[in-house]
Amino acid sequence: MRVFSSKAITLFLLAGGCLAASACSPCHSVIVERFARTGMGRSIQAEPTLPPVKFYHRLSNRHYTIRDGSIRRHQLDSGVREIQIVEKSIGFGIGSGNHAVTLVHRSPLGLLIELPLSWYRQLGSYGMSPGYDAPNHFDMRREITSACLFCHAAYPRAGAKPEIPSSIDCARCHGDTRAHLANPRRGTILNPSKLSAARQLDICLQCHLQTVSQGIPDSIRRPGRDAFSFRPGEALSAFKLFFDRADPPEPRFEVNHAGYRLLQSACFKSSKGRMTCTTCHDPHTAQVRNACRDCHSSSHAQAANTNCTGCHMPSRRPTDAIHVTMTDHWIQRRPSFQNPEREIHTPYAGPAVPFYTEIDRLTLAIANIGGLTAEVPELYRAHLRRDPNDVATLAALGNSLFRLGRRGEAMPVLDKVLRLDANHVGALNTLAVAHAAQGAYGKAIALLDRARQAHPDHSLTWVNLGVTYNAMGRREDAIQSFREAIRLQPDFAEARSKLAALLP
Prior knowledge:
The protein is of the alpha+beta class. It has three domains: 45-149; 192-291 and 313-336 and 344-361, no CATH class; 362-502, Tetratricopeptide repeat domain (Serine Threonine Protein Phosphatase 5, Tetratricopeptide repeat, Alpha Horseshoe). The protein has 19 helices and 15 strands. The strands form four sheets. Strands 1, 6, 7, 8, 9 and 10 form a six-stranded antiparallel sheet that branches. α11 (361-367) crosses α12 (376-386) and α13 (391-403) packs antiparallel against α14 (407-420).
């Protein structure tokens, strides 16, 4: 038996009283070593192997070069000279490499930016990152938030954010490990197999349940819950509420649809809640067993060489990540599908409906906010009575009030956002435009400078700087600001039209 000192526990400590996987190795070396080879155990590539490449994306007419730990983007003008050059260092990669590794830039302030190229195992080469195979993609401007990182990394270390996140580890399924390290015996740590089937399933679904990747919010966290606050053993519905599109789910297949599709299956429904992900999957090794024989007794099902998944859970190409193939977890007698040739970005205009969790009327109404109406601020205010310091909702409230022409109400709301999050780029921009509309150009420029320093690649900040400089009579500064917005986002039509209006 090995008992860790309080000093060792402090070194390993993660947010919420969880510890890094290396703390478990002295007693569980075989499990830790096997798990480290799984996709979850390799979910972060701290030092990804990056073969050099020159890559041209025809839809957006952009050239990319990866070399010496950095990625460079440019376009060509009519004289075949390089223009709109942007270069970023590559800090780490997200993904095990079983399917793909997406490259990430970390800014000096710790901002994480998803880069436009990913390495795909199936291709054996680079391709556009999921969601980027379009003329007007995010390029080098898409921020990776803590909510995005939740399903790809371990709980963040206590204190300050680490430079590079860690791969998913033991704590995501076993919870707080401090008591077990102090007293390593049964009962001092969560054993998921002792939970009800529903709570076991929720442990997997915390990351493997995404109903839809665009068009509607697939989920909304409960008031007071931050991105990494889910703990194994609690009901997933206590952490967040889930939504789905109202149209039939069967034709849709996306990259993170394993849990979503499984929940549609007749096999799952007929199990009356007994079927979980670990019915087939060993989470410590990622090995899969043929559990179909547990219920299906026909000679066909029981044949030694029967490959049930090959026919009833085929590999398919997701509509939002066409360079990979994933197992379709909707178990069907005779699946029928057609792989997409391009990413599908067709917008969904229908309503969001509850999925998997019971949803109150207010949360459902917020999920269904579409166009801006006079009722929208009141929905946000009702939510803030539950969670007064919800930064995202405060920012949405301030923005909606400003767009409705209610600047006097919007400005104190946005001021509160910035007291809670001094670098909130959206609030900085909206408040700056509000001040500029009142002729307070100095305050507007100061706020936009803060936004530019926090997120230098936020193209809208540069457009707002250009508009404000132009209103102040600083034409050359305005021209340079619009040009910077275009360099960062070559397809930014508003920046191009405003620049054209200032040029001879």
